[in-house]
Design a protein that fits this description.
Number of domains: 2
Distance between the termini: 36 Å
Strand content: 15-25%
CATH class of the largest domain: Mainly Beta
Largest sheet: 7 strands, antiparallel
Number of strands: 17
Order of helices and strands: EEEEEEEEEEEEEEEEHE
Helix content: under 10%
CATH architecture of the largest domain: Beta Barrel
Structural class: mainly beta
CATH superfamily of the largest domain: Nucleic acid-binding proteins
Shape: globular
Amino acid sequence: MAIKQLNPITPGQRGMTSQDFSSITTKKPVKSLLVIKKTARGRNNQGRITTRHKGGGVKQYYRIVNFKLPVGTTAVVEQIEYDPNRSARIARIKDQTNTYHYILAADGMKIGTKILVGDESPIEVGNRLTLENIPLGSNIHSVELQPGRGAQLARSAGSSVQLMAKDNGFAQLKLPSGEIRLVKIECMASVGIVGNEQNQNVKIGKAGRNRNRGIRPTVRGVAMGAYDHPHGGGDGGRHGTGKAPRTPWGQKTLGYKTRSRKKVSTMIVKGRNEGKRR
């Protein structure tokens, strides 16, 4: 996918770029795989805001993506579609029972591509196998963390996981963050890289485009009053005082480790921050 540069006929389009939708083959999704998407606007079941700067945005339907196709599935890609709920494209496939499914569209997937699920499947883009039957060094996506649970790793546009090693019933996977994690070799994964890899290079260009995505404005703490934020107030605040920056509720940020030591997974061989400058 390439990035589409807009003709700057308005000030908002001067720094804006868009995705190239030429790879999308249809604009009509399967109605049986659509459900109404209700957004909470960042609020919990008590109506309190737990995630700030969310609300509004255009209405969207959620596409039901099948992240755990059963073993033995044989399907053919019929369409490549746009999904407003994720950065990746989705592929509409029809299996041997004439049932439609949505899966993540891998890079290189097109109409007519055959999808096979099972350990006897060839190592080709889109096929799904257990980690035990995938060669070392392969780039994979839609990886399970637990057998039968469904894909959880490497599902965003352009992402992939590299299979590094296999030992004692576990496979070592190198994640995009640099972290190396152990996963059971019975877990399933799809061969290839998730498509739409240029999505990260899209420039929003104007505020209204973010509002359509349901992202509300963010106000800097130093622009607030002392009552509203630890950085607020016109008496110097924290600039030049040597005090650590904080969240609106006083929690330290920017380098302060908030990950619980008790919850650190024993399956992590190498952390994502190891080897980086401190």
